[in-house]
Design brief:
The complex is a heterodimer of chains A (110) and B (111). Helix content of chain A is 0%, strand content 60%. By secondary structure, chain A is mainly beta. Chain B has 111 residues and is mostly beta strands. In chain B, a hairpin with a 3-residue loop joins strand 4 and strand 5. In chain B, strands 2, 4, 5, 6, 9, 10 and 11 form a seven-stranded mixed sheet that branches. In chain B, strands 1-3-8-7 form a four-stranded antiparallel sheet, with no helix packed on it. Chain B starts with a strand and ends with a strand. Classes of the chains: A mainly beta (110), B mainly beta (111).
């Protein structure tokens, strides 16, 4: 079945760049997503990328997709304390059955 | 605010009971998804509805059922509750076949 893997923890210093990595197994995935979850809150969609793209940039966020290796990354430039949260990678086939990774807990140190 | 509304926000109930969680999707979104988030299982897909019809089914227990009504709101019914059903239950809605927007969740505690 489909599987999405992420490292569980990442710590960075305020002002540095953060890179969160994700691997997935389903080669038929059409969309790949990054969601952010703050304590006690729901999942906030940050960005998503279509599987035929290799990069998408949105302000401080850069998504890189290596379809051959089934590897997705999220780079957050100039990381701030407000970026501390859990980041989930997810994949879907045309919006069916989103499969989520376990989440990466990002801690931003002052 | 994602535009997806879930009620109630918190629910405490006893084992063996039955509860109903409600979700109002974003205006115009035809797809509704239900997810369960627990510490040990992560975020698990339960079920998806599209315009009133069941579209996809995940790891949903037989004790759980859902439906989507003509006005597109959805309800998740959980019965014969067990301690292990304590979790955050999220609803998400989608306008088409791409992104999904999540509600704030219902925290269910079974005692």
């Amino acid at each position: 079945g489909e599987d999405v893997e992420q490292s569980l923890f990442l710590s960075v210093r305020e002002g540095d760049s953060s890179v969160i990595n994700c691997t997935y197994t389903d080669s038929s995935s059409t969309y790949l997503y990054w969601y952010k979850q703050e304590p006690g809150a729901g999942l906030q969609l940050l960005t998503y990328i279509f599987s035929n793209m290799d990069m998408k940039q949105d302000q401080r966020l850069t998504v890189l997709l290596n379809k051959k290796d089934k590897h997705l990354s999220l780079r957050i430039a100039d990381t701030q304390t407000g970026d501390s949260a859990i980041y989930f990678c997810a994949e879907s086939y045309y919006g069916q059955n989103f499969v989520f990774g376990p989440g990466t807990r990002l801690s931003v140190l002052p | 605010d994602s535009g997806v509304t879930q009620t109630p926000k918190h629910l405490i109930t006893a084992t063996g009971q039955r509860v109903t969680l409600r979700c109002s999707p974003r205006s115009g979104d035809l797809s509704v998804y239900w997810y369960q988030q627990s510490l040990d299982q992560g975020l698990q897909f339960l079920i998806q509805y599209y315009n009133g019809e069941e579209r996809a089914k995940g790891n949903i227990l037989e004790r759980f059922s859902a439906q989507q009504f003509p006005d597109l709101h959805s309800e998740l019914n959980l019965s014969s509750l067990e301690l292990g059903d304590s979790a955050l239950y999220f609803c998400a809605s989608s306008p088409r076949t791409t992104e999904a927007f999540f509600g704030q969740g219902t925290r269910l505690t079974v005692v």
